[in-house]
Amino acid sequence: MSLRGQLIDGRAVAQTLRAELQKEIHELRGQGIVPALAVLWVGDDPASGIYFRAKEKLARELGIEFRGEKLDAGISLDSLLDELDELNCDSEIDGIFVEFPLPDHISPEAVRNAIAPEKDVDGITPVNLGKLLIEQEGLIPATPYGVMMLLRASGVELRGANAVMVGRSEVVGKPLALLLLNADATVTLCHSKTRNLREHTLRADVLCVAVGQPRMITADMVQDGAAVIDIGLNWTPGSIVGDVDFERVKERSSLITPVPGGVGPMTATVVMKNTVEATKRRVAIKHVRH
Length: 290
Ligand code: NDP
What we know:
Elements (H helix, E strand, L loop, with lengths): L5 E2 L2 H21 L5 E7 L3 H17 L2 E7 L5 H13 L5 E4 L9 H7 L11 H8 L8 H12 L8 E5 L6 H10 L3 E5 L6 H5 L4 E4 L17 E4 L3 E3 L2 E3 L4 H7 L2 E2 L7 H26 L1
Parallel strand pairs: 1-11, 2-3, 2-4, 5-6, 5-7, 7-8, 8-11
Antiparallel strand pairs: 9-10
Helix pairs in contact: 1-10, 2-10, 6-7, 6-10
The protein binds NADPH dihydro-nicotinamide-adenine-dinucleotide phosphate.
NADPH dihydro-nicotinamide-adenine-dinucleotide phosphate binds next to α10.
């Protein structure tokens, strides 16, 4: 009988990655190289505060220098762009991460365009997204990259598989669809205008969901034996739930990520991985120039 409802343990996969990073950072520090991450939290969004502090804690645990700045919600776009420019030019900073959402008067596009691509540890700049499209080495968006690591760690065969991505945001859905495509899956990208969503999801060998609606993927929408990756994080009174009706979908799926404890723990860890990656590239470029 095939396996049913086996959990993909994001905490364990993230822990393994953290141990690898810790070792790598220790070696870099031994050579006098200190990876450094700057995180900007603009305004008072409470979820951003949680993510900001989680990155601070993790960076310190791993030995990454953390420079966090909490900026007033009323900051002007110009002042924010000046802050970013300073960080771009600061030779001691390897990675820059801006917490989203931003206050309404700050254009996300302007912020996205202002981060130096080589320091863009969430892979949100046009340069890094473009590199993903043409399969060049760049910095890969953290959450989608974390999902790919979970699929790999769980032994999910992507080549030739039908992968269905529900949600097409720039931070999750679109880049994850590209990563799945680059891994030779046959990819369907669904969104709010998709007709008969269920027809698509039922064909998925690998079903990834990033919508932001509690338990919107029900068991009747899932193919028997599918691997299900739930990226959604929805705060309901007293708990956090995903976009997938976990308890029922678990019975149909072969593998499934829980919420919490699935994709969530990977994201901050991958930001640290990207920071170390950016550090190594900076050092390599310095060596080439000298
Ligand atoms: P967005 O709101 O930016 O995008 C949501 C997407 O879902 C859109 O593409 C939208 O379509 C689509 N959608 C909305 N309703 C439907 C529907 N009924 N059927 C099909 N598609 C629909 O969200 P994000 O991608 O930023 O985040 C999605 C979820 O993932 C959230 O819960 C967020 O908290 C979570 N998240 C979790 C992370 C983690 O580390 N675990 C990291 C980032 C996000 P359209 O484009 O047509 O509007």
